[in-house]
Structure formats: structure tokens, C-alpha cells
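Narrative progress, year one. The postdoctoral researcher (J.K.) led the effort to move from monomer predictions toward full complexes, under supervision of the PI. The following entry was the first complex the group processed end to end, covering 846 residues in total.
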Amino acid sequence: MANLASAKLDAESHLLLDQTLLQMPLQLARRNLKTAQRYVERDIASVTKDLKAAVAAATKGSATQADALKALDKMIATMKGLEKKLVTLQEEEMKIHRSSKARIEHLEELYGMQSLMDVKYDGWSRTRLSRLLVDYLLRSGYAESAALLAKEKGIEELVDVDAFELCVKIEKSLREGHKVQEALNWCQDNKTALKKIDSDLEYQLRLQQFIELVRAGTSKDGGDDVVHDADEDGDQGYDTAKLLQAREHAKKYLLTPPAGSTDIGLVGRAAGLMAFDSDTEVEPYKTLYSQSRWSDLAALFLHTHNSLYSLPGRPLLHIALSAGLSALKTPACHSIYTSVSSNSASSTTTVCPICSTELNELAVNVPYAHHSKSIVENDPVVLPNGRIYGRERLKKFNEKVGTEKGWVRDPIAGVSGKRWREEEVRKVFIS
Amino acid sequence: MDALKDEVELLLKNDNLGRTIKDVRNTLDLLINARNKVAADPQAAPMGLAKLQTPAKQTLDSVHESLKKINGRANKYSKALDKKFKDKPLPGTENDALSSHPSLINRAIAMHLLREGQFSVASTFIEEAKAHPPHPEPTAGTPNPYLQEAHDNEVANGAFDSKKLQEDFAEMYHILHELRENRNLEPAIIWARDRSDLLESRGSNLEFELCRLHFVCLFVGQDEYGYPTDSTEGPMRAWEYARREFVPFSRRYAREVQQLMGALAYYENVADSPYRMYFFNDSAWEEVATSFTREFCSLLGLSADSPLYIAVTAGAIALPALLKMQNLMSLTRAEWTTQHELAVEIPLPPSFHFHSIFVCPVAKEQCTDQNPPMMMPCGHVVCKETLDKLSKGSKFKCPYCPGESLPKEAKKVFL
């Protein structure tokens, strides 16, 4: 009876992991819509303005037929351009909505299953694993593998490979290319949304630009004309133009830290930077100059990107996996003794997933499952070596390996192992 | 679910940019009309333009209007989503024990892909993971992940032998493919014969089962490739096969071999004979394939089904209970991943039980290596700590029966 209860499938609570599955396309659709809105506002404003001017000119009588035609042609061109842009956006929009629909239908399948032992659940859960894997791969920046896996499994509509493409590209440009431009463009595209979540990504990017300008300006060997530097102004070889540019940049972008910034002293420190060379050992300037700021920026970008699309802070695979590891782990999984009930030594048992090479090391740090009752095979007996088996399993094994009548062998030791007389096998009481 | 479906249906059918485009096209028509008029009649320019103003404004307004409408629909859908998932927050991510071992996760994924036979995805993944090794992040359990990197970076530095594993699984899939698709037992039999001793000492009948299936195939009139042959020859060929191949089995499987040979007597109407079950078993192929997969993986020390699949499925089943517990424990400021043992019992279906569990009936605690189960001479089992407490070194009574014994008479047992 207890088994039946534990196998019951409650679809509603089973959807815990699947919130982002539906949130992501919604966010994408909204962004798409925002873009449309921007186009519409701009183009309509321009058309309205043009029309007004044309009417004014016509009523004044100063416009010729040619002028009027020219004005109309301009308006028509604008609207045609708008139409074209909207058609592209609509294609994208429909794609997004279709994927939403496919996802809802996918989740709905779950409501048709009553039991976790259902074959259909098995298939569904395998699809879920593929989804989570693709999500993990995308987040880790392994876009190619993600796309390939999605394709092979035929689950393109259930994952967001395309949406992550840009994200991966920008992340890479920060981490590896040490370039901020693409990330800044992205900030521009998502300006309002970023403001809403009080993101300081743009500020940090601008700060990095400033740091790079100062670095270029103060570096003694990095400049273009190292030899001449010493003569110019006697200024220790600083590239004054670069430093001036840095000051302008700071004035323009850095004076007002964003609302979400918790680091008030940052501006001051950044300003102080100009007094130190890029190879300085003095903190905090050393940290500001550090190349590791780039990977921090990349991480910050990923973090911002994920919260913008209301993705959880960690990959869903982590969440599911660590819960699963704990639910399955037993003290036997990392025991120094061979587990009698689950090992690879004999074909009477199956290998436990936590003991299997794939997960064993990962599971070291998670707690094991709580059990309040012993779970043992029916009719347990103990061999003289202390190993406990279900009587039936022991008997079956010995039949299979053809142990001589009246004798018993330990499945773990196999046919070449020691044999005992059947009388030596004792009943053991486990409550 | 239905509410969500309806909303999406509306988004797909009505409230999308199609609306806006229609309004834009109306405006365009107006403009083009006006242009044609002006072009046809030079005098009409001032009039035509002035007349254009109001309808143009209307259509342009409706463009805005339609966008608003679409936005409204998206908001409704968003609300429906929020409602659906209102009581389903994601578990907190502060105590994610896995972020400090991204390389181990990558290895698990690579092995999963290989064992699922997705070799091209696996090799792409391994390449990508090598090119951009993951960055471990500190977590509560592993505050300084970088110290462990040495053994942690198997995938990254190539120590993880994906090639060997891939070859192994490629062989497995080849054999399975032959079994399932082509009904060809030959590769499986060769594989099993090469490992005959190993399989036998594991108590596996795989080799015999494969040969028996081969015998059956011949008997009912199929040649080596599963194509039907002249049925009258079948039993004869089966008999020849048995004489040739069954000798090594004759000792261990004497009874089974006898049964098969006995069936030969009924070669004309085996379907009505008592031997029917050996010859008309539709699931025989699938059974053999499953037991082959199991043996194959076991010999590699791996579980038969993907551990990643089992663990993630178990995780999804466990999450609601874990989440509840997490909420309770966050009130008391305890975290579930830093404990040795979870605080609540997670009910998993029986197919997710692998090890036997021994919970000491006195201490109510699971046994561990440090505190192993001990069997008293009467056959009752308690954990070592309980035993020490009960006996205090001298003769004591079993808590479950009148039996008395000395602590040194208790014996460590293994489950």
C-alpha cells in the first residue's frame, strides 16, 4: 500500500521546475513587442510631423505638386519600412507563441498520468532531462552542444537556444575579447527593463572603459610612441590625450552612480586611479586594474541577463540534481564495504545510480536520505561472513551458478568464492 | 492549464502584431490613395493633403491602439502564469552543493550522453568543455573550490577517457541495434562468449539465454539473419545447432537443454505442446536486450539506466517535500545541504530503492561505517552504539527477545 502512495503523481506540485519554461518565451515576446513599439512610435511621429509640414506648406500655397508628391513619397516610404520591420517581428512573435503553446501542451501531458511508474512518465521525464541539460549547456556557454542536443532530441520548441545565442556571444566578448561595446549595446536595448531591476551593469561597463583609457594613458610601454614620450612635456611618458579622454568619459558616465549601486566610494576610487600606473601594487587600484575584472563583468552580465528573463540564479539541473542526489543517497553509497544489496559484482543486483561512476564523487557533499524504517528484502538470512541476503535471491543465484546441492556461495565472491553448507546460513531478524 | 492555453491561443490567433500590421497597411493605403490623387490632379494637392489629415491620424492612432491591445493580452497571459506558479517558488539557491564541482557535473553529462548513444553531441560537448573549462563557485559546503581543481578537472584536461567509454558504448549500441532491429544474435553471442567466465561467476545466464533464443529462431524456421526458411528444415537445423553449441551448457543448464531437446519431438505442432512458452514468447527479444544492457553496464561498473536520469527524476519527485522542509528550516536557520542527513523522509517509488536500509530499531538511526549494524547471537540486529550502550561491556539481554549475550559475541553484518 505504501508503494502505491509513493508512486502517486501530483502534476500540480510536479511543475516546480517548469516555471521558467513558460516565463522565458513570455519575456521574449514582451521584448519583441517593445521593439515593435519603439519602431511604431518613431515612425509614426515622423509621418505625423511630415504630414503636418506638408499640409502647412500646401495651404500656404508655397508647395508645388512635386513638393507634395515628394512629401507623400517620404511618408509612404516610412510606413513601408515600418510594415517590413513589423512583419519580421511578427514572424518572430508567432514563433515565440507557438513555442509557448508547445510548452503548455508538454506540461499538460503530465496531468494525464496518475503514477510515477507510468511508462509515459518515464518518457516525459527523459524529455525533461534533455530540456534541463540544454538549459545547463546554454548557461554554461556551450551553445553548440546545446543546439545539437536539442536538435537530436527534437525539442527545439521546448528550449531557448536562439535566445541564448546573443547572450553567449556577449559573455564571450567580455570574458575573452575584453570588449564592452556589444554588452553596452545590449544594455541600450534593454534600458527600461534594466532600470527596473536596478542593474548597475552599464555603470560597471562604463567604469571598465574608463579603466582601460587610464591604463592606456599611464602605461609606459603600452603607448604607441614609447621613445618620444620622455621628451614630450617631461610628463613621465603619459599619454595625455588618453587621460583627457578618460576624464571626459568619467564626467559623462560615471558621476552619477546607478540607483542600485551599493558602493558609494567607487567613483572616488576610480578618480584616484588616474594617479597610479597600471602595474601599481597599491590597493584598491590594483584590483581595479586587474584583468580578472573582465571575468567578473562577464559573470555580472550573465547574472543580469538571467534575472532579466527571470531565470533562477543557478541552472535548474543543479536544483534537480542536488535534490535527487540527496533523495537517493544512502550511507552505503560511500561506504568502504561492498554493499550487499546493490553492487556490480553479481547479476542479482543492479548498480545504484549514486554508486555509479557518474555521480559518486558529486554526491560526496550532499546529505543522505532520511529513513525511519529499515528496508530489507523478504526473509533475510546471514552468511557466515556477515553478509545479509534475501533468501530467495541467494537461492536463485546459487541455482544460476550451479552451486552443488546442499552448499551455498556468496554472490559477491562469485563461483570461485568460498562455499558453505546450507545449515550455516542463519535467519536474521531485522525490524 | 486550460487558462494558460486559452491565453496563448488568443495571442496566436488575434492579439499579435498581425493587428498592428493591418493598421499600418490601412495607413499606407490612405497615403498611396492620396498620392495617386495628387499625381493625377496638380490642383488637388492642398485639398488632398488637408483631407488626408484626419483619417491618417485615425489610422495611426489605431496602430497605437492595437499595440496597446496586444500588450494588454500579454499582461493577461503573464498574470495567468503568475497565478499558476504563485505557490510554486523555486528552491533557494544559496546552498547549492554542486556549483563547486562543475567539472564533475560536466563529466556526468558527458557520460550520460555517451551511454545514451548520442556520440556526436557528446564529442561536441567534450570539445567545448575543454575549450572553456567551467569555473567552480564557492558554496557553503565547499568554501574554497579552487583547491580541489586538480582532481576536479578531468574533462578539461583530458584525463577523462571519453574515447574508451565511447568505444565501449558504441559496441553496446551496435550489439543492441543488431538485436532489436535485425534480430541478429551473433554479435551478442560473441560478446557474451568472450566474457563467459566473468558472466558465469556473476550468476548471469546471458550467454545461454542468447543461445537458447538462437535455437528457438532456428527451430521456428529462421536462418541466421531472421529470414524465414523452409520450415520443415527448422527443427533439423536447430538440432544441429544444439549438438554443436550446447555442450558447454550441458552441465549447468542440463534441465533447460533437455527441455529444448524434448521440444524437438513436437516439431510438427509445437504451438500446441507443453513447450509452447519457449517458442512463442514475444517479449523474448526485449528481455534479452535488457539483460544484455544490464550486464554490459555492470561489467563497466555502471548502473544500467542513466544515473543522471534517475537522479534528476528523483529530484523532481523530491522537490516539493524538500522545499517544504527548507522553508521550515530557514525559520530555524538550519540548512538542509550542510546536514549529514535530510530532515524529512522523501517518499520515492520502489523502483528508486537500490540499497537495503538498516535503521536501528532502538536508536532509530541509519547505520553507517562508523556505527555498523551488529547481530547478536539470537539473530536480532541493532547498531553498534546501541549495543555498547545496552551492554556497557558486560553480559546483556537482547531488547527483542530473552536471549542474553556478551558484546564480543555480536557480529558485524553487511546489508
